[in-house]
Write a structure and sequence with these properties.
Layout: H1 8-19, H2 28-40, E1 46-50, H3 56-67, E2 73-76, H4 96-106, E3 112-115, H5 119-124, E4 130-135, H6 141-152, E5 155-163, H7 171-182, E6 187-193, E7 196-201, H8 210-220, H9 224-227, H10 236-246, H11 255-263
Length: 268
């Protein structure tokens, strides 16, 4: 059984108080879940964030990591150019100053290793093990898959990859979750919290969790046709999408229940 670190609830609560004052698009349940991952995922390695925007998830991850001496959060984002997830940006604006201001306001600037670059450029020279991989960058299928493929090669056994907006109207996160995690025996326990999909890298015994992953996959895959090829989700398509999404379990999970799940040698 994974041992939970001391005062975990208090640490995550304090981190949430800082996080909720930071601009961004991260819900409370998924923010707290990120804090749990930062504190509890076993193994040694970096916490890597792809897509920082104005620092909301960065503050949560760094606050918890700093409290337990887990090293800096590696935050990767060029902070420029518009994208489907940052529609207010134009070709000449940047979120970098606001990102730095968020870190300073939360008192975590010394606990963040910022890379103002595209993830592909960072990946070229990356050689460190990764314990937690948080993917919240390019939400197209090509972009999300590239981030997943480039950085999961560095996941330590027992490490966790999480994708933001998997239950929102983007093809990339949900398709990578279904095809790259739920259909792969290299991953064991998996789930969704709010709109954050996650899977634990278990190449040694991932087959033991097939039934668990299959239960989620049968529901999650129903969302794929509605977002295929960047299809606009509106009108009747939106109604079908929401119905499919409603069938995917996405409740919050307690630290104790999460630790019990990932500690299993075999899932029923």
């Amino acid at each position: 059984m994974i041992a939970l670190p001391p005062n975990l609830e208090e640490v995550i609560e304090k981190a949430w108080q800082l996080t909720q004052r930071t601009p961004g698009f991260l819900g409370e349940r998924e923010a707290r879940f990120l804090g749990l991952l930062a504190a509890c995922v076993p193994g040694h390695g970096a916490i890597v964030e792809i897509g920082s925007f104005k620092g909301k998830s960065t503050v949560m991850l760094a606050s918890v990591a700093a409290r337990y001496g887990l090293g800096p959060v590696v935050a990767i984002d060029p902070h420029t150019r518009p994208s489907p997830t940052d529609p207010i940006l134009n070709a000449t604006t940047s979120t970098f100053d606001e990102f730095l201001a968020s870190l300073k306001s939360a008192g975590v600037e010394e606990h963040v290793e910022a890379h103002r670059e595209f993830s592909g450029a960072v990946a070229k020279d990356w050689n460190r093990p990764i314990r937690v991989l948080w993917i919240d960058g390019d939400h197209t299928y090509a972009g999300a898959k590239e981030d997943f493929d480039l950085f999961t090669t560095h996941l330590v056994e027992g490490g966790v990859v999480a994708l933001h907006d998997a239950l929102n109207a983007f093809e990339g996160p949900i398709r990578v979750f279904v095809e790259g995690i739920l259909r792969s025996d290299r991953y064991g326990p998996a789930g969704v919290v709010q709109s954050t999909a996650w899977g634990q890298f278990r190449p040694g015994d991932g087959t033991n969790f097939q039934k668990l992953r299959n239960r989620i996959e049968r529901r999650a895959r129903r969302m794929l046709p509605f977002v295929a090829n960047g299809r606009p989700v509106k009108g009747l398509v939106k109604i079908g999408f929401k119905l499919a999404r409603s069938r995917v379990p996405r409740a919050a999970i307690s630290a104790a229940d999460w630790a019990a799940l990932v500690s299993q040698a075999r899932a029923d």
